[in-house]
Amino acid sequence: MKFVFLNVWGDEMRDELVPYLEKQAIDTDVFCFQEATDSMRQSCTHVLADYQEISGYKYISDVDSFPMSIFIKKGIELISSDTLFADDMNVGLALYAEIKYGDKKAYVCNAFGRSRPSEKLDNLDRLRFSQKLIEFFKDKDAPVIIGGDFNLGLTTESIGMFNLHNYRNLITEFSVKTTRNHLIWDRYPDNKMLHSDYVFLNDKTKLNSFTVEDNEVSDHLPMILQIH
Fold first, then answer.
1. With 90 as the cut, is the pLDDT of residue 188 above it?
2. Of 16, 25, 146, 227, most Cβ neighbours within 10 A?
3. What is the mean pLDDT of residues 165-186?
4. SS3 127
5. For the chain, which domains are there?
6. What is the torsion angle, in degrees rounded to the nearest 10, for the CA atoms of residue 82, residue 17, residue 50 and residue 70?
7. What pLDDT score was predicted for residue 119?
8. Residue 46, pLDDT score
9. From edge to edge, which strands make up the β-sheet containing 77-84?
């Protein structure tokens, strides 16, 4: 089963994003998008016609809003889904879906952490966001895949917390040098952040492969994994 996690940056890179997703849709089972604005989803309607969509949204401020979507290939059974933390204005937002493929079940979570303050460092609310995610999935007796744009640096306690709860951090495990590109660095040359996006797997998830593609379909890089 193949998953793609990507902060699509709204509709900023439509001419590059649409053909990229069209190519990925050939064999992708689940897309998890952050910054999936209405205009972005309209641009990709024909590309994602064979998928069922789950969406969520929360507005905190003009610089902290959370349009998100999970697209699941038709034919994969959607057992349950929900938007997490929609009423908590101090943390980010998450969507989850419980899916069945063949005789197997999995939980996929699309997570989007707050972007302010702009330094991707720990604070009490960011720590609480990680804690709330870990708490929600702690008793799930099946593979759990948590990924997305956490707006956090690689060495923060908020990220390290997942390791302490027996999650694999694929960004560190595969020595990924960056999940961003020059589209963000050109805008903020004095604040070159290399990491913002992560994928975590619980100990019940069997990984086949993981890559972070170096391209320019967004100001974030796509994270792609396949599990058994």
1. no
2. 146
3. 97
4. helix
5. 2-227 (3.60.10.10)
6. -10
7. 84
8. 95
9. 77-84, 93-101, 104-112, 144-149, 197-201, 168-169
Instruction: Cis check for the bond before 117: say yes or no (omega within 30 of 0).
Output: yes
E-state strands within the chain: 2-7, 30-34, 51-56, 59-61, 64-65, 68-73, 77-84, 93-101, 104-112, 144-149, 168-169, 197-201, 207-212, 223-227
**CA gap 181, 25 in Å, rounded:** 23
Per-residue pLDDT band at 19 (split at 50, 70, 90): very high
Question: Which pLDDT score, from 0 to 100, does residue 224 have?
Answer: 98
Please return the burial class of 132, using the count of CB atoms within 10 Å of its CB with bins 0-12, 13-18 and 19+. middle
Give the separation between CA 87 and CA 66, rounded to whole angstroms.
13
Q: Directed axis angle between helix 157-164 and helix 124-137, to 10°? A: 20
Rounded Cα gap, residues 223 and 209, in angstroms: 11
Taking the mean position of all CA atoms in its chain, how far away is CA 154?
Answer: 15
Distance CA 183, CA 7 (A): 13
